[in-house]
């Protein structure tokens, strides 16, 4: 037992007391300073980047801080970061793509109530929408949410409504929010990946590359419920709770590996590599650990290696150019690879020659390039698949599934990945005249080793006794064809006997469709439309009626005409509807197929079709302002660009006109009837369609010339719509004296515009642009739109732009 004698106990106690008092005083001083300087930002105050401390506000619990975050030697962003992480991990940034100068820039809480980030030259880089309100202070909450509130504590603006790449616990994910990845590790700028609710109410990851765009999560090859999702809840809401659980209305659910642990700081971040990851913070070390991720295999992420390249595991993932290609920009794989010097010219010469023997194929086993298929054929032999690729000038390569004979011709080599889990064999098409064909017998410079030499019989790769090889090859092909034909005959006889006993359509196609959409019966739709009382419009394929479902949703019900090809058109539309989704395309919710009754149920557009607005001479609709017209032009261009270049099936609309452009409550355009036309494989030798589609005035000249119909036919129609949109009236009213053909009126208008656009004087725009706007429009945008329109209605379709290039031009002028 220890005892104290004399004055030892009082002295020890006094020492402890003095030390405790000192610590308490320092804590009180620190708290007082924090409350005095960093608890809130008052109206009328400002903080400069040149102040001693770059921290402006600290949350009461000390977990978060916001202020000027250094991103370069003399560049700063206004950001919120985790105070307790060792590297000041950023959770939110204002205007991430526009850092401010380190000298003279400031954050100011203006007297008008707006919180603004001002660059050194006085330019407002970013601001809140709280101008002319009772905003009195800005506070950083314990949740990491920066809010601007009035004197009564009511929230007027919050950072939770505009996330960057990170979602914090209890921060809602809604239809109006999205996460955008950073462009690279440690950089603040916007990258190529987005996490958002798509038009089908699904939380998705999309790659928005410089040349193409594609959703890659959830797996686009599966139906929504194959991915464990549902499309029925349009409320679109998701949230990560404080225990590490994420739940959303589309039934996306996942949890952190340390879920349930209390007082753990977490964040859900869309990283620069396109992977969505959930992190937890170790409070002792200040380091983050991954507790969940969307992809365990990085190579499944689209665009990770760019075009003409492969993502390979060795064992870590790495990128490699295909044979005969080299990196476009060393150090940046997102730019992909391109042909080496002179190879492009040789390729084009071979592709344009009448002979198909200028190419050879290099086989790369266990390799898959997702998407961008020119077409898909029924089971064929390997030789037939090669022949199909040789006969198609746009075919860059093909994939072949051994055993089942599936053949996929590729128009673009993107999202390539090599793994033993893939059963595809990939065949790269190379011109013989290049030195790369000689590399096939040598050791390749990358990981894609060719283990088996197999090529078209005319290839120089074949060595030894060629006649024996050819005989054996053709013998195996003949046997394969025989087996395939016998199988098809057996299945055909069985199907004929089975379907012959069923008067109604009960095929696999409808089974797949009915599992993807809601299938209505005719009585339901008859009740919803009040016996088809209110007609919204009609066209060649049928009439459209307004309806209200049992859940009070307004819908448009299209009753297809019962014509000879009605069933074929109906099935054509339904077969592609599951693979086509875009915000500027009308969304289909369901269908009805009962005997001769075939109907489609789609979303309802509150403001009707564009033709009603343009033809409004009675003042029934508000006059479209220029910003609305420009947005309509841009939205329609985006929708057509998606149909022509981005969706899994390349689609030519063939009837682009104001009647088929619907406007929702916000006047956002949505293209209708895109599923009622023939699908045309991009770049293939498309046969001329026997029946002319479209409407007088919008039909491209190639219809009359019996030329193959491509997406350029839609470009022509879009150009006419642009002219109508700017001019404010229909093309039918441009005819002179009633004797001129409407096609000639379009040509005459385009010729006049060419001359006027060539001059520097733009005063004539006042006479051409819709007079109902009273001259209130953007001259630069109007001139650009008219230039695009004139180029779109060129008689020579080769001189018309692509819809993707139109989108780029229009986006460049968005204010």
UniProtKB/TrEMBL annotation:
First and last residue of the signal peptide: 1-34
Single GO MF annotation: ATP binding
UniProt keyword Cell cycle, yes or no: no
Membrane topology recorded in Swiss-Prot or TrEMBL: Single-pass type I membrane protein
Compartment annotation: Membrane
Biological process per Gene Ontology, one example term: response to other organism
EC number: 2.7.11.1
Annotated family: Belongs to the protein kinase superfamily. Ser/Thr protein kinase family.
Protein name: Receptor-like serine/threonine-protein kinase
């Amino acid at each position: 037992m220890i005892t104290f004698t004399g004055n030892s106990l009082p002295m020890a106690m006094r020492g402890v007391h003095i030390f405790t008092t000192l610590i308490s005083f320092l804590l009180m001083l620190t708290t007082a300073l924090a409350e005095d300087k960093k608890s809130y930002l008052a109206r009328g105050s400002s903080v400069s980047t040149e102040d001693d401390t770059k921290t402006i506000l600290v949350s009461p619990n000390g977990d978060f801080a916001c202020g000027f975050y250094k991103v370069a030697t003399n560049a700063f962003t206004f950001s919120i970061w985790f105070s307790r992480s060792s590297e000041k991990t950023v959770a939110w940034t204002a205007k991430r793509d526009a850092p401010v100068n380190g000298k003279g820039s400031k954050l100011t809480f203006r007297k008008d109530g707006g919180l603004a980030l001002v660059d050194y030259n006085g330019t407002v880089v970013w601001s809140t929408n709280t101008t002319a309100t009772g905003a009195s202070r800005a506070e950083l909450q314990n949740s990491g949410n920066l809010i601007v509130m009035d004197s009564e504590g009511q929230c007027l603006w919050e950072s939770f409504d505009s996330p960057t790449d990170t979602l914090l616990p209890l921060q809602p994910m809604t239809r109006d929010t999205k996460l955008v990845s950073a462009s690279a590790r440690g950089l603040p700028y916007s990258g190529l990946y987005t996490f958002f609710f798509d038009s089908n109410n699904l939380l998705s990851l999309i790659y928005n590359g410089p040349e193409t765009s594609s959703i890659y999560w959830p797996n686009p090859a599966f139906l929504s419920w194959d991915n464990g999702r549902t499309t029925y809840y349009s409320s679109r809401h998701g949230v990560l709770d404080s225990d590490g659980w994420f739940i959303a209305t589309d039934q996306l659910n996942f949890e952190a590996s340390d879920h349930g642990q209390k007082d753990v700081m977490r964040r859900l971040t869309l990283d620069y590599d396109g992977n969505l990851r959930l992190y937890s913070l170790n409070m002792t070390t200040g380091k983050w650990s991954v507790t969940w991720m969307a992809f365990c295999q990085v190579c499944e992420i689209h665009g990770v290696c760019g075009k003409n390249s492969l993502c390979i595991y060795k064992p870590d993932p790495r990128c490699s150019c295909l044979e005969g290609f080299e990196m476009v920009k060393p150090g940046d794989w997102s730019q992909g690879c391109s042909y080496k010097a002179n190879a492009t010219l040789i390729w084009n010469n071979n592709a344009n020659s009448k002979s198909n023997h200028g190419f050879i194929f290099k086989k790369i086993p266990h390799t898959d390039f997702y998407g961008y298929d020119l077409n898909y054929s029924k089971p064929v032999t390997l030789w037939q698949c090669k022949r199909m690729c040789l006969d198609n000038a746009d075919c860059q390569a093909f994939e072949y599934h051994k055993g089942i004979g599936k053949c996929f011709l590729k128009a673009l080599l993107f999202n390539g990945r090599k793994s033993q889990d893939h059963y595809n064999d990939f065949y790269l098409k190379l011109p013989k005249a290049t030195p790369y064909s000689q590399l096939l017998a040598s050791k390749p410079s990358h990981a894609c080793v060719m283990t088996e030499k197999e090529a078209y019989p005319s290839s120089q790769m074949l060595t030894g006794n060629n006649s024996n090889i050819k005989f054996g090859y053709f013998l195996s092909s003949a046997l394969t064809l025989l087996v395939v034909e016998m199988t098809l005959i057996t299945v055909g006889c069985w199907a004929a006997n089975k379907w012959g006993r069923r008067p109604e359509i009960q095929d696999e196609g409808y089974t797949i469709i009915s599992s993807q959409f809601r299938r209505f019966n005719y009585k339901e739709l008859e009740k919803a439309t009040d016996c088809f009382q209110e007609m919204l419009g009609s066209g060649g394929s049928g009439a459209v009626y307004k309806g209200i479902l049992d859940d009070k949703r307004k819908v448009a019900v299209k009753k297809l005409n019962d014509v000879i090809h009605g069933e074929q058109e109906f099935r054509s539309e339904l077969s592609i509807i599951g693979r086509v989704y875009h915000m500027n395309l009308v969304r289909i919710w369901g269908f009805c197929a009962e005997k001769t009754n075939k109907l489609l149920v789609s979303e309802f557009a509150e403001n009707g079709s564009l033709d009603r607005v343009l033809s409004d001479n009675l003042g029934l609709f508000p006059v479209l302002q220029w910003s609305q017209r420009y947005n309509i032009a841009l939205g329609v261009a985006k929708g057509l660009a998606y149909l022509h270049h981005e969706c899994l099936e390349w689609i030519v609309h063939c009837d682009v006109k104001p009647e088929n452009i619907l406007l929702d409550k916000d006047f956002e355009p949505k293209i209708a009837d895109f599923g009622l036309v023939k699908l045309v494989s991009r770049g293939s030798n498309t046969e001329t369609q026997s029946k002319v589609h479209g409407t007088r005035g919008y039909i491209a000249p190639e219809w009359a010339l019996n030329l193959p119909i491509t997406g350029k036919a839609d470009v022509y129609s879009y150009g006419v719509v642009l002219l109508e949109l700017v001019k404010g009236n229909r093309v039918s009213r441009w005819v002179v004296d009633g004797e001129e053909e409407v096609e000639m009126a379009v040509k005459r208008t385009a010729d006049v515009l060419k001359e006027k656009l060539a001059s520097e004087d733009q005063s004539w725009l006042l006479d051409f642009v819709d007079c109902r706007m009273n001259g209130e429009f953007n001259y630069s945008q109007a001139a650009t739109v008219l230039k695009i329109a004139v180029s779109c209605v060129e008689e020579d379709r080769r001189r018309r732009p692509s819809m993707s290039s139109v989108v780029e031009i229009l986006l460049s002028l968005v204010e």
